[in-house]
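The instructor's notes for this session suggest beginning with a concrete chain rather than abstract definitions. Hand out the sequence below and ask the class to guess, before any prediction is shown, which regions might be ordered.
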Amino acid sequence: MYHARVTTLARPTSFSTPPPLRYGDTIAIVAPASPFLDAQFLPGLAWLQQCYRLRVRGDVRARRGYLAGDDERRAEELTRAMLDPDVRAIFCARGGYGSMRIVERLPWQAFAKAPRWLVGFSDVTALHVEATARGVMSLHGPNVTGLGTRVAPLVRHDVLTLLAGVAPPRTFAGLLPLHGGTAQGPVAGGNLALVAAMAGAGRLVLPRGAILFLEDVTEKPYRIDRMLTTLRLGGHLADVSAIVFGELVSCHPGADGVTAEEVLRDCTAGLGIPVLARAPFGHGETNRPLVMGEQARVVGATVTLGL
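After discussion, reveal the predicted structure:
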């Protein structure tokens, strides 16, 4: 069943925090987007199994072209995880593409009434946008395929402590100030391409005064320009209090020589808000998790999360 566009929702003014995750709790592993390689998936699964009971459907490895099975399979898998009272967190296997295709099919109203942690990044940004629109915190962090043996210990530590509700405030220091200033507000955003796509679909609802965190991979600078311009023309940046860009991996200049960071500086110059770059989250080697909806502060070249 398809539902009304999410832009009919009022902007969230507060956020509900899913119950903390404890050792031995049940978590669901879902594949709402693209298929994955066992060599990347199984090490992450093994690490999670040291802490939690895993609920994994037998068809999680399904493949249909660039999707992890058809829309019906992926939507049903995620719906069951969102409604199962025993499931305390939902970890996405991989990003890629496909989450947007099923967002209308998901039980967001029931999920908002009984939230549990939703974990993932990249294409999973579509799900974070939906949760944010309903005032539910979620964890923008590594997918299961990113929790294997090569992940930074600090990232794993962040994931565990944030989900358990025992993480102290975290600081990203020494960032690149593109435009100076100070700001405080709730964290929102994720992958730039998905944020722009959700805006184009009429499903992007940002809390007023949000600090918008954005990252991307393999996008040409002119495409980054187009996506940021889309957000600006759509009015989505009008009430943002700051923008923090994460890693822009393999976003190389074209023949014109214009760099991605030059685009970031130019496209945000007229907003009159602080803008920082090179924060340690996204598709690079260190994907520090972010809690969507938590309070953050920007001062100079430093971001403090979890106030």
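Then share the key points. The chain has a mean pLDDT of 96. Residues 71-83 form the longest helix (13 residues).
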